[in-house]
Task: structure prediction
Amino acid sequence: MKILVADDDPVSRRLLESYLKKWDYQCVVASDGAEAWRLFQAEEFPIVICDWLMPEIDGPELIQRIRHSDKAGYVYIILLTGKSRKDDIVEGMESGADDFVSKPFDHDELRVRLRAGERIVNLERSLRDAQQALQRTQNQS
Result:
């Protein structure tokens, strides 16, 4: 599964990329929100991991753009940040994030959260395929 990672911190970006490749994910990295948005528009990413604080376009704005895009299929979004106050978590989730992981992240926690995201994306794909098959059947009647 292809994952877009957006983080302006080069150390975090390399660490995420290393773990994702180790876990057999295809990883595309962006160093800021604007680059991530350009990549998202050009390719299909079922999962996005983005930092909150980035230059040009921050995490919550990137998430809102993704949620309002006309791409088919659900995108599971994990907001990764050093912010950990309850208000921050609420704000991040209200921007459209599916999950929230605090930095420094625990790699085992991130892995299980990614697996949950993968299950959700796969379920949505199966549902969409079933709906399309049903619609084709109805159109043939």
Notes: The first strand starts at residue 2 and ends at 6. The beta strands are 2-6, 26-30, 47-51, 76-81, 99-102. The chain has one domain: 2-140. The mean pLDDT is 92.
